[in-house]
Amino acid sequence: MGAIAAAMQPPPPPEVSGWAERNLSFDQGSPFPGPYDSSRFPMLRRIHEVLSPDHPAREVTVRGSAQIGKTDALIKPFLGCIFDMAPRNTLVVHPTNTAAAEWVRSKWMPYRRTNPRMRAVFGSSAGQLDNMGYQETLDRTCSLRTVSAGSPSELSGTTRPNVVMDDLSKFESTALGDPESLAVSRAEAFEDAKIGRFSTPMITGACRVSHAYQRGTAEEWRMPCPHCDHRQALAWENFRVDEDDPGRSHFVCVACGAEIEFKHRDDMVAAGEWVATNPKGDHPSFHLWRAIMPFRDWRSIAVSWLQARGDAGREQTFFNDVLGLPYEAASDAPGWEELRNRAENAVEAVQKGRIPTGLPILACGVDCQGTWLEWQVVAFGRNNRAHVVDHGLIPHHIGEAEAWAELDGLLKRRWRNEAGRDIRLDRLAIDGGAYTDDVWTWAKRHPWERVSISKGASSDKGPIYQAQKFERRRDGKVKRRQKRAFMVNVSALKAVLYADLKKEDPQARGFQSFAAGLGDAFFRGLCAERRILKRNRFGVMESRWEVIEADGRNEPLDTRVLAEFAARLAGFRSATDAEWDALEAERDAPAPDAEPDLFDRPVTAAPASEPPAPTPASAASPAGASDLAARFAALRKG
């Protein structure tokens, strides 16, 4: 009778937390191997509750730090509960095809193979109808489809009641539509749909997950102070970093001012609760960050900040990945007159064409215009410091032989540093977004280790740079020229540069200095843009850079960004202290019997104040350092 009674018991309700406790287990590589224990994650109970199929919430947003278990402790149990207890077609959307394929390979398939309930639902191995983007349950009642936000046709070609958007902040609109809107519309026909948004944030004002979070209830985990019992959320502004001993870093109570130490965390978190800061929000939304999660201690937060502080690029990563907050990126530069005066009135002004001590990496950026090329040489050193050494114009189109000769001369030329040593360019980056064939034809004449081709990416949501994708050979390998060409996130590089330009202390990390004699036009062009927030035609807020100078000349900014990219390829941002020591010892040590450099002058005499007039292709190239430097190099070699 007991067995009959047990068989007649109704199944438990399809609730995510209960399903996770019964069926979810972490492997030995997890910080908490073994069965899922909800007491370790009290802050996840309510998120599981609103994700559960029977809960009336149609949308759920989770904004948070990176690597805190959003996939393992939220998305996986949600999908497990859905397919095991309330089978329905489900759509998972990732920013790119690469991200989607990686999620299927490294997250979903191992979960499907190792979790007993997922094996029961999907089978022990991929079936005949399975592929990376489409997997059916054994009874064929429903399926999981995984697509890229960059493929509108895939998004618009399906109807699904359950939609998961992972890494939402990196979704980008295309000419065919906005992927977030398309994904939401896939569930439009279902009254009881479930739409989940999960992501670390990105840039303030144009961050998708932050917009969704603020539109929702914007809930934060509030805990009692161990000293006065005042309930509060642990906030970055109340975190005190101990530079001498990061392990002693702590929070300060907003009520009594007492120190809240890491040893208090577990008891505080266990007694916490979600509190809506926007109770009238249209859906449940939550902010999770590292300080309240059990995976890392607070020392890691302090160390991450000390490593990032002063570096705008790393600071953004810290805010996004550690704090789970959007980053307020620089939107404009200081006044150009201020930068010009900094160069001209410096106590120890460095003349144009000379390299200051302590900046041993030399990189050049080249921008291609219709009738001329513009170039800028920048020296880079440790602590992200940089100095504009030289700037000039080449009055020829990139397709002309004269332009090639001048560019060759830049690669052969040497600039003298204050130690009397002559330094050649470590790397040159040229813009290949326009006049692509001509750029490639010239660039391929030089080793890819010295000459790189860049193409500006359309947004600031990707990495700083990544190799361009070309067609693959029959063996599947990418053609060798991939080592030369890169997609460059110019938006992010401009934001980093403009943040550094505002630093006035020469000892500050990222301080930017300039040679005397660069001219007003250079500084106007360097400060020619600003970042604005604007809605695209789909109504989504995006950040864009626009030229604000009346003459529209921004080539000094473009060439400076290209020089930064070239320097990064040369190891500027990744060099260790030992590598900097070796470079400085090699290049900054006084040169024996240093003599004046007869060839230390601009490649062309064209003025930097305005673009040169068009030059006929048949005109002779002006005598300059290119020919002289080539002969000098040949003599030395001989």
Automatic annotation (TrEMBL):
GO molecular function: ATP hydrolysis activity; endonuclease activity
Domain Terminase large subunit GpA endonuclease: 283-573
Segments for region (Disordered): 587-624
Pfam families for the chain: GpA_ATPase, GpA_nuclease
The protein, known as: Phage terminase, large subunit GpA
InterPro entries: GpA_ATPase, GpA_endonuclease
Source organism superkingdom: Bacteria
Domain Phage terminase large subunit GpA ATPase: 31-274
Organismal lineage: Bacteria, Pseudomonadati, Pseudomonadota, Alphaproteobacteria, Rhodobacterales
